[in-house]
Amino acid sequence: MIFYSNWRSLAAYRVRVALALKGVQHEVVTVDMLGGEHHGAPFKAINPQGVIPALRTSDGQVLVQSLAILEYLEEIAPSPALLPADAAGRARVRGLALIHAADTHPLLVPRVRAHLQQNAGLDDTALQAWIHRALHTGLDAIEKLLAGSPATGQFCHGDQPTIADITLMSHMLAMGFFQCDPSAYPTANRIARRCEALGAFADAHPLKQPGAPAP
């Protein structure tokens, strides 16, 4: 199994955590995003969208999109489970995950930021306001869903990490990278501290990956 990754990619971080939690053996291939390798023909032959991550399975199939890859890992390595056993619980976890992965993170990615500056005329101040609004809007919704549900435990759903915790931590990392203050979200912060204490999350941190700048 080959995992195409880069330290800068929060989507790759999400897959990295899942691979670690489940103990799935894999080879890491680092794609040079600063050098534009992900836009080149060799990588686009792997993932035509030209984005990170991608996962080549042991039988040669290439999977793309982080949440789809997480679902695949859940099926091939069901323990420890990253989705609850009941249908409503699975829907809740997926819903929490999608607030970040589908509604917030896509507004922050480099190609969108570049478009906003080059084609929509946003200066640095306006772009920062765009990023902060997206992150705070998403985390505000996640916080309310977590704080208002009896299903929330030590983690987003119960007392074991799920896909929702992986995406929550991806969101919290984005908050830090873009200098957003997360202090207004006590439940999310409590769960984030619990996740940070687990080796799978700590070791997957972007700044601990090959090519990352020194902290």
Report what the structure shows.
With 215 residues, the chain is α+β, with helices and mostly antiparallel strands. It folds into 2 domains: 2-80, 3-Layer(aba) Sandwich (Glutaredoxin), CATH 3.40.30; 87-203, Glutathione S-transferase Yfyf (Class Pi), Chain A, domain 2. Helix content is 51%, strand content 7%. It is built from 9 helices and 4 strands. It has helices at 10-22, 41-44, 66-76, 87-104, 110-118, 124-147, 163-177, 186-196, 199-203; strands spanning 2-5, 27-30, 54-56, 62-64. Strands 2-1-3-4 form a 4-stranded mixed β-sheet, covered by helices on one side. Helix 1 links the parallel strand 1 and strand 2 (27-30). Helix 4 (87-104) runs antiparallel to helix 6 (124-147). It is globular. The model has no long low-confidence stretch (mean pLDDT 96).
Q: Give the amount of beta strand, in percent.
A: 5-15%
- Give the number of domains: 2
Strand order of the main beta sheet, please?
Answer: 2-1-3-4
The CATH topology of the largest domain is given as Glutathione S-transferase Yfyf (Class Pi), Chain A, domain 2
- Name the helicity range: 40-55%
Unreliable stretches (pLDDT < 50, length at least 5) are: none
Number of strands: 4
Query: Helical segment tally?
Result: 9
- What is the general shape? globular
Mean pLDDT: 96
Largest sheet: 4 strands, mixed
Provide key terms for this protein:
single chain; about 220 residues; alpha+beta; Glutaredoxin; Glutathione S-transferase Yfyf (Class Pi), Chain A, domain 2; 2 domains; four-stranded mixed β-sheet; 9 helices; globular
